[in-house]
Amino acid sequence: MGFRAAAKTGKIDFLAMVAHVAAIVALVVAGVSARAQTADQGWLRYSGGHPHAAIPTSVRALSSDLKEQSAVRELERGISGLTGAKANADAANGETVVGTLSEVRKAFPAIAAPAHLGPHGFWLKRTVWHGSPLVIVAGANEHGALFGAFGLLRRIAINEDLTHLNAIESPALPIRWVDEWDNANGTVERGYGGRSIFFENGHVRDDLSAVGEYARLLASVGINGCNVNNVNGAAPFLTPDMLKGLARIADAMRPWGVRLAISVDIASPQKVGGLKTFDPLDPEVKAWWAAKVAEIYALIPDFMGVTVKADSEGQAGPASYGRSPADAANLLAGALEPYAGVVLYRAFVYNNHLDYKDLRADRARAAYDIFHPLDGKLLPNVIVQIKEGPIDFQAQEPVSPLFAGLRKTNAAMELQITQEYLGQQRHLVYIAPMWKQVLDFDLRAEGRSTPVKAIVSGKAFDRPLGGMVGVSDVGQDWLGSPMALANLYAFGRLAWNPDLTAEQIAAEWTRQTISTDPEVVATVDKMLMQSWPAYLHYTGPLGTQTLTDITGSHFGPNIEASEGNGWGQWHRDDAKGIGMDRTVATGTGFAGQYPPAVAKMYESLATTPDDLLLFFHHVPYTYKLHSGKTVIQYFYDSHYDGAAEAARLGEEWATLKGKIDPQLFDDVQGRLEYQAAHAVVWRDAIVQYFLKQSGIPDARGRAGHYPGRLEAEDAELSGYSVIDVKPWEDASGGKAVACQGATSSQGDRMAAAPQTSDGASASGASLSCSAQFAYSGPAGHFDIAIQYFDLQGGVAHFTFNVNGRAVASWAADATLPSRRPNGDNSTRFTARGIDLKPGDQLRVEGTPDGNDPAALDYIEIHPD
Ligand code: GCW
């Protein structure tokens, strides 16, 4: 879980601390890399303090089935870990028995068992048998029994009273998958948790122990499928060698009931099979797939199926032959049908060369326009996998209208657990509240209540299949951030039971992962629940989507990146107003894709909720929201509020010091400090951009005014030269300084030829630059934030001096996106508790390294 914190703090004695901290960091890093990757690092900690005499520690299975055996091992490990009692202590104290419902009936004929359990469901019962306690973990089948074991352990871990335990559960959705976007070379597309646990160097890894642990984590929350490879570039996964490796992955997951699925490239018959064509209607192509699928099932008898991305973002598809997605989906479905395999055909099909000038063009329309006409034409083992919103995992979108547009077709909802557009695990964003909004949204199809959760469970339109698919993208550091695991947990829990609330799930996760201390639980849950609204507030509210660099990192602010190109993630801002007109009357007509009641709501400005206003309407900046505020003022306010909310997350976490695991405390504290600083980068970028664009001042006087801020470009520079940052809004005032040979408006060629400093630096370094600021405020005690750009491709060093004395020094060694100075890598170091008086000289010295020119944006001085 090593986190290279990008936001740093320092005291006046910082230099002395550096060596000490470095030593600790080295120890921690060594410890982490030596430590195996296990599910215990997730929520399966099973740490003590839960005396549960009610649960006998003697555990046995009623059959030799693999999943029942896993259940027994997990119960032994979990009960002893949680209660402190030795496993299998004494059968005379009763026993915990695992089996299927029919096995249980046979073994305990006198006990009244439920007549029926839903598919994969379970029954947990505490009773007395021949005078001793008996706990029954009974599944509808062996898989249900395994889920039951985890269900029992969860109840112990969250301190439920189990004396009268008698519970029945079954999953609401049949398909509960995670998708991984892993590439054969070991990278993970949009993964922020390190390299692949499945692949390296073009092959399946030799050591798959992490895969087994991952499957254990997944099983514990009811997940039953895992697609292990990227939907992009999937052809190499069908070679004979790769299939053998994939069979080993399936073996590693099998004890936990997690079945393997893979992404396939629809052009594989040509790319892998050497055929001249991949036309889905060609008989040779059909035969090729039949043979390939037979080869797969010979190796992996419980193979679950395939996922397809076709005719989308450069992936080949049936359109090459004038065929429809139904032709391609049915081709694969036909091949998989004899083995009961399924096809998850992604509805993420759109033209990424749209004409920006065409006010009727709209990417949001694509999924419905393409798939609605195919309703009823897809085979029963095809499931259309629909992203939760019509664009692409934005911080906020309306629900995809396609959920209501397929009534004779199975549908699954795809969402992202990995935080591609939600701060990439560097920001704390608990996504369950957003998923809940989607699941609970009532599309009013056929004029009746049809919430998305009823559609994807198959109930609303009486479909046999349906589900939820979460793009998880774990790596060798799981999700990269320990708090982000709450999202993986929440995904599984919601796929099992979409009626749970986000708060309930947060509390369950916190109790299992961090502490059962009610104060800790309350604080962590509050933070989790605040985190998505906060992120929305500082990144792009009112339905503008995430105002990020959509053609690059998808991380930092970049407002115009979505405009003027063919990608269609437009918000259409200009000097007068902002928003996409998606109405039927005057816009793209997207609103009309919803069933009538919802279409009517979005068609009218008066009834569109404020939080999606700009997704559906283009309005002047002066347009008044339902709240009475103008759009522009809302932009200013929400960004200031959002940044303050982000800062509050850190303050709340600080109250947990001494109450939770110290390593976790420090790790998360570093991340939250970074997040608070990056929220300021977001705030300033968006606020200054729209101030300039609209020309309308902030009624509260904040936009464009930064108390205590001194711009680097106004400082006395030695060696540093002024650069234009791109996009301009990512630097305070649009400019920064870089220690480089020549000014580059692109931020290119940085640090090509660092200049010799004036020689007065405390470190005596010869290749550094400096920016000197004269302090003119009142005397006092201050925190001084130094905002700089931490680029990839080099580790620049900084020193901060007051009146020639070095008070802090640090390395720009964070792993943030981009090789150019911009909002992806704008970050800060805060020197705390510094005494200043008028006339003091503050100096930042930057020493470039490699591609990193020690670029500096500003310093900001605040009373501490
Ligand atoms: O959000 C976008 C991502 C791509 C991804 C694509 C998809 C796998 O930026 O990285 O490709 O969605 O969902 O297919």
Topology, pairings included?
Blueprint: E1 8-10, H1 14-34, E2 59-61, H2 66-83, E3 95-100, H3 101-107, E4 122-129, E5 132-139, H4 142-157, E6 166-169, E7 175-179, E8 199-200, E9 203-204, H5 209-220, E10 225-227, H6 240-253, E11 259-264, H7 268-271, H8 283-299, E12 305-308, H9 325-336, E13 342-346, H10 366-371, E14 382-387, H11 402-405, E15 410-416, H12 432-440, H13 452-456, E16 466-471, H14 485-496, H15 502-513, H16 518-539, E17 577-578, H17 596-603, H18 613-616, E18 619-620, H19 631-654, H20 662-694, E19 709-711, E20 716-718, E21 721-724, E22 735-738, E23 769-774, E24 780-789, E25 797-802, E26 805-811, E27 826-836, E28 841-847, E29 856-863
The protein binds 4-O-methyl-beta-D-glucopyranuronic acid.
Description:
The protein is an alpha/beta fold. 30% of the residues lie in helices and 17% in strands. The strands form seven sheets. An eight-stranded parallel beta barrel has the order 7-10-11-12-13-14-15-16. Helix 9 (325-336) links the parallel strand 12 and strand 13 (342-346). It is globular, with a radius of gyration of 29 Å. The relative contact order is 0.08. Mean pLDDT is 92; it is low at 1-6, 10-33 and 742-766. Bound molecules: 4-O-methyl-beta-D-glucopyranuronic acid. The site of 4-O-methyl-beta-D-glucopyranuronic acid has 11 residues, from loops.
